[in-house]
Amino acid sequence: MEIFKKAETVRLRSYHDKYLLADDDEDSVNQDRDGRCMNARWKVEILEEANVIRLKSCFGKYLTASNMPLYLGMTGKKVTQTLPRRLDSSTEWEPVREGVQVRLKTRYGQYLRANGGLPPWRNSVTHDVPHRSTTQDWVLWDIDILEIRKKKPPQPILPPPPPPPEVLMATIDDHAEHNSPKEFSLKSPRFSKTEVEDRVSSPGKADGRLIYYRVGDEDGNVDEGAKEELFCFKGLGLEELKQKLEEETGLSDVSICSKNPLNGKLYPLRLHLPPNNSKMHVVLIPSSSKEPKTVTEKREGDPPSCNGSTTPLISGELKYSSKLRIFMFNDLKLATRNFRPESLLGEGGFGCVFKGWIEENGTAPVKPGTGLTVAVKTLNPDGLQGHKEWLAEINFLGNLVHPSLVKLVGYCMEDDQRLLVYEFMPRGSLENHLFRRTLPLPWSVRMKIAVGAAKGLAFLHEEAEKPVIYRDFKTSNILLDAEYNAKLSDFGLAKDAPDEKKSHVSTRVMGTYGYAAPEYVMTGHLSTKSDVYSFGVVLLEILTGRRAVDKTRPNGEQNLVESARPHLLDKKRFYRLLDPRLEGHYSIKGAQKATQVAAQCLNRDCKARPKMSEVVEALKPLPSLKDFASSSSSFQTMQPVGKNGVRTQGGGGFVSRNGVPLRSLSSLNLPQASCCKRDGSVESEALGSFGMLGSLFLFL
């Protein structure tokens, strides 16, 4: 701790002789050998009472120990740079001296760790407790002091101020001789007129906040040439400030507004007041004004008045789309029945998702079971995906319309609230149907879903006005409507594709472990062919009924792609990959064609992978093929022999539900998203699923 008490700015060097760097995306943290750049400089803030420090990057954000894994299924939690509304213990690091080096301990009892090894772990930074002796030194850091902390000079003891002139006058009058003149002129060098005004208008540091204000007219217009009035406010809340301003101006029932410096618009002030010793500029609007209007003329592309929403949009971030409805927070609160647990559909990395009901063509809440059913996604204020992904969702889904994309109905941006409103998808996610213990999806439905998902990617890559890389294609992000039409959701990681002159864009690796293309993981080079690889992984999951990564399986079978690759193009062995729950109810030609398409999408050479439009054309005929393997005389001879000498169907034995074998799926109705009652029966239920890090479930 002593070394940090002496330092104003430091540089941290890891065991790998690399420096801790704040990434230019102002979100992630990594390590690099270039320690001369500003990104390697960290300002030290000391909390002596707790014996911990905070490290602030050159972007003014704090080094933060998150509770999110770096990669799914792997050890180590993310370390990021954030600027939370309230500083909590996630930004605090306890220095633990280790010889001449230091360990930085988190609130979780883990240590800041500089990772080595192969990509994507190389150059990453996590917080973890090393379990292997070879990684024990990865949590040790050398501290280079770049700036010495300046000692605050002792405050000089000032003599007490002289009494006011009137006091001196009275004192002199009392002691004056009777024959002396009655008038007395006192000129004190300490109290010139200017200095007296300065003392009145410039309070000391402990006096409160300086409030600068102007008064607008009833239409919300403000004379920019008018001088701002000033007073010192020592109160604690907005109500006190309002009373003080009404006393200062003589007005009653005024609205206190803040002006957005980016677009010149006025918005009623509903946030907390800034801390003491700070300045605040406000505009007062008389009560007869219905809503504050913009000071400047309305610009082309500005969003409407947000149905009374009082939070200004961030210029240059949020793209305006006339297709989206803009909701009030209280309306969504009522639509979801006060976000009660019974309305909860699930929870993901972004936040919670609730079921709600609104007007068919409006934003007002309606009685459950009437109007338009929607899924309302709330932003977790402590989540890592946060505002950037909320914006990406609006900017992409708000301007893209296609039958294979989930419809974004609208959004709410009021004060600190960030919500998204989607069409409700009653069949839930593809992940639910493939990996939960429900009736297996028939072959034709699986192929229908594969074609629909492929059409969604093809639209993003080749038909959208500006090509888009989806970057997070996986089964939990493929939602199903009542007719099992596939739609892509969750565009939080989407990115604009490079122009025709470039083959890729370079970006930090994000997404879900097991689905990301190898060249993207190794180099950070992202292209539309990265999505094609992810589609190949999902197509394999559809064919096999297995997860992309399954730690419960034996070694050598945990990674689906690598274990399936030898069988994909083998006409004699491809059937071994197919989901045994299909029990032969699949098209032989269709299955062979689908495995070939998967093999092409999973080609290690990204340039050899097909376009998604080519994938769509190859898969289109497959849902209607009827040459079921179970009807073929050769099907029984294709099955592997079990231990008792009996051939097992589908390579995986019979699958039963409540003791009844499932042998004729073609005669069954299409499966419902379901949940089991206590008596063992199955009850159909509409499910909604949104979120980055997994499927979201509705439990009755």
Structure write-up:
- This protein is an alpha+beta fold.
- The chain has 4 domains: 2-148, Trefoil (Acidic Fibroblast Growth Factor, subunit A), CATH 2.80.10; 201-285, Phosphatidylinositol 3-kinase Catalytic Subunit, Chain A, domain 1 (Ubiquitin-like (UB roll), Roll); 306-423, Phosphorylase Kinase, domain 1, CATH 3.30.200; 452-684, Orthogonal Bundle (Transferase(Phosphotransferase), domain 1), CATH 1.10.510.10.
- The protein contains 14 helices and 33 strands.
- The protein has a 6-stranded mixed beta sheet, sandwiched between helices. A 5-stranded mixed beta sheet has the order 14-13-17-15-16, covered by helices on one side.
- The radius of gyration is 33 Å and the shape is globular.
Topology:
Elements: H1 2-5, E1 7-13, E2 19-22, E3 29-32, E4 42-47, E5 52-56, E6 62-69, E7 77-82, E8 94-98, E9 101-105, E10 111-114, E11 125-128, E12 142-148, H2 165-175, H3 193-201, E13 209-215, E14 229-233, H4 238-249, E15 255-259, E16 266-268, E17 279-285, E18 325-326, H5 329-335, E19 344-347, E20 352-358, E21 372-378, H6 386-397, E22 408-414, E23 417-423, H7 430-435, H8 443-463, E24 468-469, E25 478-480, E26 486-488, E27 495-496, E28 505-506, H9 518-523, E29 525-526, H10 528-544, H11 560-568, H12 588-601, H13 612-619, H14 635-638, E30 656-657, E31 660-661, E32 674-676, E33 682-684
Parallel strand pairs: 13-17, 18-22
Antiparallel strand pairs: 1-4, 1-12, 2-3, 4-5, 6-7, 7-11, 8-9, 10-11, 13-14, 15-16, 15-17, 19-20, 20-21, 21-23, 22-23, 24-27, 25-26, 28-29, 30-31, 32-33
Helix pairs in contact: 8-10, 8-13, 10-12
